[in-house]
Design brief:
The structure is a single chain. The chain has 8 helices and 4 strands, in the order αααββαααββαα. By secondary structure, it is an alpha+beta fold. It has one domain: Outer membrane efflux proteins (OEP), CATH 1.20.1600.10. Strands 1-2-3-4 form a 4-stranded antiparallel β-sheet, with no helix packed on it. Belongs to the outer membrane factor (OMF) (TC 1.B.17) family. Pfam families: OEP. Keywords: Cell outer membrane, Membrane, Signal, Transmembrane, Transmembrane beta strand, Transport.
């Protein structure tokens, strides 16, 4: 199982610079300390399997007689006792099964944390796309406003325009330059958030795509969630609690012990002159032993069984709550996708129509047939539609990333 996880984590080993969102997500999976912590928790849980299914240590007792006990075959000098207790048949297997199920639940928690990290990376990536697009739009807006200012100045110089037109475009240029400056400053905070997810220097450059595609693949509803690591984790915990109940009942049964005593016996030296030594004179003694524990204090065993039963109920309620939450997130996110897709189409159409209006108004203004204020207002409206389209596209992709997380779809 460990090897499977390492394969998951190291899919892009040797890559020097990520250029796509998927590559950034893999980089985060390899480097993010939170995900590494979850993986280490799973590895630690695996180690508990051997602990839970292992026997207790044997007991060795060494006794030396201060005053030797005389026996028929000689004095007892020392005693060595070795014993081992064994739980009731199947108890160790049951305990190991509990630990294995809980370790598997940790693995599902790791998968969920990885998927959540993928979503977090996407949620931090698309604001960078939005910011870069805004900067491009704003720079284009400044270029157009500067050209409008040149035309307004030329018309004022020729007497066919007013200084008000020049001042009005100057004000709009100041606003545009200020917005661009704010965007430049905002970029640092967005890069910090993104690079921290990848656990790398906050000043690292980030390659962001310059366009986003919107598809209709989700209309068929084929991504309805059927399983999720969070649900699988709770199902394993329920199964583990059932196994814990069985193990608790086993622990309430007697424990069997076996052992052996080895007694060092010295030779008799108190025999009368000429008396024959007894048979086995000075022969060491070996004494096998069998013991049984008596679990007569039942309260703690009943409490352990009850604890496992209540834990099962708790996990069952958590599972139902998780299923409900995921179902809600699924429906809300699908609505968000549909909404943003409609808005993208709306803003695209409005931008196209406004651009046509802009061209007509500018031509009319060049011929002194239109008010310059109307030209500028239409230009700003076009700017707004283009920005709203970018916002909707970024929101669509962020919602899509969330849907991938809700449905446990792997990138």
């Amino acid at each position: 199982m460990k090897s499977i996880i390492y394969i998951i984590l190291i899919l892009t080993a040797g890559a020097t610079q990520a250029q796509t969102l998927e590559e950034y997500q893999q980089m985060a999976a390899e480097n993010n300390p939170g995900l590494k912590a979850t993986h280490k928790a799973f590895e630690a849980a695996l180690e508990q399997v051997s602990q839970a299914s292992g026997l207790q240590d044997p007991n060795l007792t060494v006794s030396a007689f201060g005053q030797m006990i005389e026996t028929r075959v000689g004095p007892q000098k020392a005693r060595f006792s070795l014993s081992q207790m064994f739980p009731w048949f199947g108890t160790l297997k049951a305990q190991g099964h509990v630990a294995a199920l809980m370790a598997e639940s940790k693995y599902q928690a790791f998968l969920d944390e990885r998927n959540r990290l993928y979503y977090q990376v996407a949620a931090a990536y698309y604001p960078l796309y939005e910011l870069n697009a805004f900067k491009t739009i704003e720079a284009e807006n400044i270029r157009l406003l500067e050209s409008y200012k040149a035309i307004a100045t030329a018309k004022f110089s020729s007497g066919s325009g007013t200084m008000v037109d020049v001042l009005r475009v100057d004000i709009m240029l100041q606003s545009a330059n200020t917005r661009l400056t704010i965007l430049d400053k905002e970029e640092a905070s967005l890069k910090t958030t993104f690079n921290n997810l990848l656990n790398r220097d906050i000043g690292e450059d980030i390659v962001v795509i310059d366009s986003l595609a919107v598809d209709d693949a989700l209309n068929a509803g084929d991504l309805l969630p059927t399983t999720h690591p969070r649900i699988a984790e709770l199902e394993l915990k329920i199964e583990g609690s059932q196994a814990a109940e069985h193990a608790a009942r086993k622990q309430g049964l007697p424990k069997l012990g076996v052992g052996v005593d080895y007694i060092i016996v010295g030779e008799r030296t108190d025999l009368a002159a000429g008396a024959a030594p007894p048979a086995d004179n000075g022969k060491d003694a070996i004494m096998p032993m069998v013991s049984v524990s008596l679990p007569v204090f039942r309260k703690k065993y009943r409490a352990a069984v009850k604890e496992a039963q209540l834990t099962q109920e708790s996990y069952a309620f958590q599972k139902q709550a998780t299923v409900n939450a995921l179902a809600t997130d699924y429906e809300v996110t699908r609505f968000e996708l549909a909404q943003q897709r409609e808005l993208i189409g709306l803003y695209e159409a409005q931008a196209v129509q406004t651009d046509r209006m802009m061209q007509l108004l500018f031509t009319a203004y060049s011929n002194s047939e239109a008010d310059f204020e109307e030209v500028l207002a239409t230009q700003q409206q076009l700017l707004q539609y283009r920005k709203m389209k970018v916002e909707a596209a970024a929101a669509y992709q962020a919602a899509l990333a969330k849907l991938y997380y809700v449905t446990a779809k792997v990138y």
